[in-house]
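Supplementary Text 2. Reproducibility record for the structural model of the 203-residue chain.

All settings were left at their defaults, and a single model was retained for analysis rather than an ensemble. We include the record here because the model underlies the residue-level annotations in Supplementary Table 4.
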Amino acid sequence: MEPRGLVDLRGEGGESFTVHYPADAVVVVSGLPGSGKSTLLRRWSAQAATVDPRAVHEACAAVMPAALPYAVYRPWARLEHARLLRASVRGGGPLLVHDCGSRAWMRRWLARSAARQGRRLHLVLLDVGAATALAGQRERGRWAPSRAFARHRRGLDHLVAALTRHARGAAPTPVPEAASVLLLDGASRGRPDVSFGPVPPAG
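Retained model, structure tokens:
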């Protein structure tokens, strides 16, 4: 499948399939903390470079005193993440980006940065609901702060509602900066694999 525009696969379980993107695509995988973004990205990471803020957080923590709270050096970690994102978008080849998805300004910034390199932004959004995301946090043993989770939830609820209205033809797309939006839920998030490059021949 080559996604164009909005592709809503919520509620559609079944066999696995491959999502095919251009060789220089920037694919942002979004959803609530615990929704399965990291699991999906691990499965896809053999196909493209991946930028994950958690990896930057851990790299910064490794060079800081153990007793120093993350809140103290969070601005530095975020700056390092932004620098890595910028450098990765400017580089060649396909790119996977782990992002909460609730910040429209971040998508627009990524889209503009990609466009300057002749690349397009694509969005994969995991709409699994708060209860499933919280269960995912319990399973991994790592919790997002409650205030941050609530903020991300509000932003993503607004985005998903706007996408649903668009799917029904009742509103324009809320993400005009994205060449495609693939909307998945708990039933469909385990189905897609990914590939990048020229379109494979039919059959």
